[in-house]
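explain this:
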Amino acid sequence: MKKNNYLFTSESVSEGHPDKVSDRISDMVVDSYLSADPFSRVACETLTTTNKVVLAGEVRGPEIKKDDLIEKVRNTIKDIGYDQDGFTWRDATKIESHLHPQSTDIAMGVDSSGNKDEGAGDQGIMFGFACTETKELMPAPIHFSHKILRLMAQDRKSGLLKGIEPDSKSQVSMLYENEQPKEVTSVVISTQHSKDLNQKQVKDLVYPYIKKSIPEKFISNLDDKDIYVNPTGQFIIGGPDGDAGLTGRKIIVDTYGGASPHGGGAFSGKDPTKVDRSAAYVARYIAKNIVAAKVSEKCLIQLAYAIGVSKPLSIYVRLAEKDQHKNEEVKKLIEQNFDLSPRGIREILGLNKPIYEITSSYGHFGREPTDKGHFSWEKTDKIEVFKL
């Protein structure tokens, strides 16, 4: 296989995957505090296991009664679709909250005071990426992996897809030729199902979602033998009952499916003062606008921060190989047109809103912006900035 011809694979997991249940509960907590006070500080971690949910972390903001928060956790589990012997939204699942006030040491470094501007909530590196492989300017394998599970979940919740339970995973492998996606070479779907369904019935239910999610030009040569559905034979016990879940364990699923570097910081459970989240969002926003402006077919942005320091320590730009002579010029445009302090990012993207629970599954990127502020980092309203 030629150097610029290769196979590349990305996976996604559904909202019923135990780690995603944890992510969603953590983001529900963030939204609950931001709804009460848009300047709340939240860092919430969630553990889910057999009939148990444990919240831990730090908050600063209005008092939310523990019983009210626990009721919201139950409603979240109910919406995902869990009412099973090993994990249910009902009282059989015990929910504990161990949230406590934010460290004063962290608060001192992050807060603005006197001549000191608000500092970053942590040190670290964050990446943003965009490419022309899909109309959403996302890498194709992760985009199609997300879409399969999202459509399955929609039909499961509406009652159109019967016998399929909330916990699912998907995986799409693509052949690239000359750096562009040419065809899908395999698809893997593992989905929790009712004990009343056999393997053939599960396959018959799942197969149509491949065609609904992936354009025909990419799957016209895909053979049945290259489609794997529940390769272990059955998948009845799932969700937190089958495997414990933790917030922040699906960071590659949340971003670009491995097609871009990742700084290592998770998103869910964090308010937007945490640059792990907000700087990754603005890096995607900038990269997407650069690609939408046709500066290059690919764009990678890296931002680096130090805790308590307002401005990024470095900005790195890498365009597609044939366009790398534009890297420095694009970097200067970013520096001149974007305030990349934590406060500046929140103001650019309108992040002090309860907009995060919906981001917790099917990817934080490649989604449709809404008039309520969800996925504001997916807008392409800065194209003119990058007209070279």
In short: The first strand starts at residue 6 and ends at 13. The chain has a mean pLDDT of 94. The first helix runs from residue 18 to 36. The radius of gyration is 21 Å.
